[in-house]
Structure formats: C-alpha cells, structure tokens
Amino acid sequence: MSQSAASAPHSPSSLFDQVRFVLNETSHPGNVGSAARAIKTMGFGRLVLAAPRAGADVLRDPEAIALASGADDVLANTLIVPDLVAALQGVSWAVALSARSREYGPPNAEPRESAAIAVQHAGQGEAVAFVFGSERTGLSNADVDRCNALVHIPANPVYSSLNLSQAVQLIAWEMRMACLAQARGDAPQVVTVATPLADAASHDALATRDDVEGMLTHLERALVELDFLDPDNPKKLMTRLRRLFAKSHLEREEVNILRGISKHILERKVRR
Ligand code: SAH
To answer: Ligand 1 pocket test: which of 25, 158, 164 has the largest number of ligand atoms within 8 Å of its C-beta?
Structure first.
C-alpha cells in the first residue's frame, strides 16, 4: 500500500527530538530534577526553563541533581531562557497545561488528543512544546494565550492539581505512546481543535509561535493607529484576536499577509 508523505512512518528518535517540555517560572529545584527524569524515562531529552525562580543555578542545585537521578544528562542540557516567548522560539504547536479551567484562551483539548495532534506536527518536522506553569500560581492567562491549545488533565475534580513533575510525567507518557504509534504508521488522524492537519499533505509551512507574536505586536500597533484599539482601555480585543488566530492555525504566508496589512496601515498614517 502506498503511503502519503504525511502518514509515512518516522523514526521514533526524529519525532522525540521535535518535542520540548517548557517549565515556566518554576520555583522548586526538585521539580526541575524530577521533570528531567520524567521526560528521559519516556525517551525525550529537551527541557526548557523559562525564567526559573532560582535562576540559572537551578541546574547545579543538589536537590535538582538528586531528583534527576540518572537523568543528569538531560539536566545538564536544559536550556534556560528569559521568558515564554523565547522558550517557544521556532515552535509551531504549543500546548498549555492548566490545573484550572479558563473562561478565555485557546481551544481546549484532552491530553491524549493534544498528544495525537502534537505528533502530527512533529511528523511534519515542526517543533512542538508542552508548557507547564509554576507551582504556586500556574500559568498566567497571557502565557496560556501564547499557546495553540489548552489541556487540563481530568483528575479528581475536587483535588485536580498535580505536582508539576507528575503532570510532566503524564504528558510525556501520552507523547511517548503517540510517537510510537506514529512511528509504526498507525497514529490516529485527529481533526478536532481546529487542526488543519486532516489535509496535512497540502498545508504550507505553519507559522511559529514567534512569527505569530511578531504579527500580533505589529497588528496591535496598527489597530492603535486606527483608533480601533484604545491602549488605555484595551478591553479583551487582543485576547479575542489571539484566540481567533489560535483556532485558525496560521501558515507563514498568512502571517506575512497580516503583517503587510499592518505595515500599510502604519505607513498611510505616517504619510498623512
Ligand atoms: N496552583 C496552581 C497549580 C500549579 S501545579 C494553579 O492553581 O494553577 C503546576 C503546574 O502543573 C500547572 O501550572 C500545570 O501546568 C500542571 N498541572 C498540574 N495539575 C494539572 C492538571 N490537572 N491538568 C493540567 N496540568 C496540570
């Protein structure tokens, strides 16, 4: 049977390499070590810390090293970046993990469904990320809005907040199962959460999260220039636009069109 490029089997290692686990503003060095161990047991190796509370020293913290156990190689290779935008550089599909449900934000997905979608993106050679919040406050709404989907692990409804590294472990397990299924060529094709991948063979290069961030900053400036957006009273406009773009899953070419529109608005204003 012939297979399309989109459904051809991939080697597990190439898929596993496309997956980043991002811990945002983590406080406890022990959780960083445990997360390194959690992802290594599932075959992954890319851990990224965005603005860790303990600073870059967290990787040398005795508690982190002790809890990483045999995953000290993952710990040593952990990337430290100043914020979530930097952590998502080059990522085209990002999933926010939240212990709480949210009124606004990107479309919701189940953990298994999010892994199935992520592996489809990884199979196209795109980088994907799972983003976890801090122990005390979780992810801010602004951080959730930087992602394409929001996932809640459906735990005990009256006690649903998992330890950070245990949440990482569950998602890494779901991703392992999804990567192994994809490598065998029998991954489910997911068509929910506004994914365009039902027709993956025809899709152009997807915009990365940083492409979308740059476009939104540009668009925001243009909307202010048009007096459509009042910077002193922005209401939920940018949040709603983020959600709209998260659902439409922009391609790079589409981001360029939107940037072109903003550029022309700003230039016309200058000429006047
Ligand atoms: N007190 C925080 C929860 C922190 S738990 C709050 O109220 O939001 C630390 C992180 O682990 C969370 O930000 C989330 O990324 C992940 N996590 C914990 N439990 C989760 C669950 N049930 N579903 C999805 N993610 C969860």
So the answer is: 164
Report pLDDT digits (tens) over 188-204. 777 555 444 434 444 56
Question: Are residues 17 and 46 in contact, defined by beta-carbon separation less than 8 angstroms?
Answer: yes
Is residue 132 within 6 Å of ligand 1 at its C-beta?
yes
pLDDT of residue 200: 42
Indicate which atom in ligand 1 lies nearest the CA of residue 164.
11
Residue 242 has pLDDT above 80, yes or no: yes
Domain range annotation of the chain: 3-184, 207-271
Instruction: Find out if CATH 1.10.8.590 is the number for domain 207-271.
Output: yes
Q: Is 101 in the pocket of ligand 1 (CB under 6 A)?
A: no
CA of 223 to the centre of ligand 1 (A): 34
Q: Token pair for residue 66? A: 């002790």
Name the token pair of 63.
């508690």
> Does the structure show a pLDDT above 80 at 269?
no
Q: What spacing in Å lies between the alpha carbon of 41 and ligand 1's midpoint?
A: 21
Domain 3-184 class, CATH top level = alpha beta
**Residues 214-226 pLDDT 10s:** 999 999 999 999 9
